Amino acid sequence: MINVLFADDHEMVRIGVSAYLSAQPDINVAAEAGDGGEAVRLSLELKPDIILMDLVMDEMDGIEATKRIIAEWPEAKIIVVTSFLDDEKVYPALEAGAVSYMLKTSKASEIAKAIRKTYEGESILEPEVTGKIMNRMREKPADHLHDHLTNREMEILLLVTQGKSNQEIANELYIALKTVKVHISNILGKLEVQDRTQAVIYAFKHNLV
């Protein structure tokens, strides 16, 4: 079972999404939080597998809550689920440590899919989010950590930026799934990033896409 904490200040949203998720055979909504402060407390207390985090909440917003959770528990896997695509929301949320970014317009089934993929170590970004990251990061100064990537690692990095899963990459390149995982681990190490989302940000920042 994938244990989930759902933080959102709209009770009806929590009720609707939680009901769907709890009906899944592999997902358990272990707790709900109505504000950022409660999300931080429950996350550190329960250590759920996945945290669904709204961004605009009373007491403490989702970005600050994400920062505090990651500061105390760097391994936390946080999926932003929000209505906002503003630049001042998207990038700070990912920079704070969120690994996936979903919109509330997404179907509950899509959120469930994002939970499973994020749990498996992948990252889910809405296409609009990817575009905003690209525009934002092109303004940043470049370093050249990617010069240390092999041709195969660069090839896999570019497939990651397209939202390909590990299995899809393995199928496309005709290599074993285990080999893909080793390559991605090497890529993250060489780029000095912690997860696939940060690797995607790096790729856009350095105009590799």
UniProtKB/TrEMBL annotation:
<feature type="domain" description="HTH luxR-type">
    <location>
        <begin position="142"/>
        <end position="207"/>
    </location>
</feature>
<keyword id="KW-0238">DNA-binding</keyword>
<dbReference type="InterPro" id="IPR039420">
    <property type="entry name" value="WalR-like"/>
</dbReference>
<dbReference type="InterPro" id="IPR011006">
    <property type="entry name" value="CheY-like_superfamily"/>
</dbReference>
<dbReference type="InterPro" id="IPR001789">
    <property type="entry name" value="Sig_transdc_resp-reg_receiver"/>
</dbReference>
<protein>
    <submittedName>
        <fullName>Response regulator transcription factor</fullName>
    </submittedName>
</protein>
<dbReference type="Pfam" id="PF00196">
    <property type="entry name" value="GerE"/>
</dbReference>
<keyword id="KW-0597">Phosphoprotein</keyword>
<dbReference type="InterPro" id="IPR058245">
    <property type="entry name" value="NreC/VraR/RcsB-like_REC"/>
</dbReference>
<dbReference type="GO" id="GO:0005737">
    <property type="term" value="C:cytoplasm"/>
</dbReference>
<dbReference type="InterPro" id="IPR000792">
    <property type="entry name" value="Tscrpt_reg_LuxR_C"/>
</dbReference>
<dbReference type="InterPro" id="IPR016032">
    <property type="entry name" value="Sig_transdc_resp-reg_C-effctor"/>
</dbReference>
<keyword id="KW-0805">Transcription regulation</keyword>
<feature type="modified residue" description="4-aspartylphosphate">
    <location>
        <position position="54"/>
    </location>
</feature>
<dbReference type="GO" id="GO:0000160">
    <property type="term" value="P:phosphorelay signal transduction system"/>
</dbReference>
<feature type="domain" description="Response regulatory">
    <location>
        <begin position="3"/>
        <end position="119"/>
    </location>
</feature>
<dbReference type="Pfam" id="PF00072">
    <property type="entry name" value="Response_reg"/>
</dbReference>
<dbReference type="GO" id="GO:0006355">
    <property type="term" value="P:regulation of DNA-templated transcription"/>
</dbReference>
<keyword id="KW-0804">Transcription</keyword>
<dbReference type="GO" id="GO:0003677">
    <property type="term" value="F:DNA binding"/>
</dbReference>
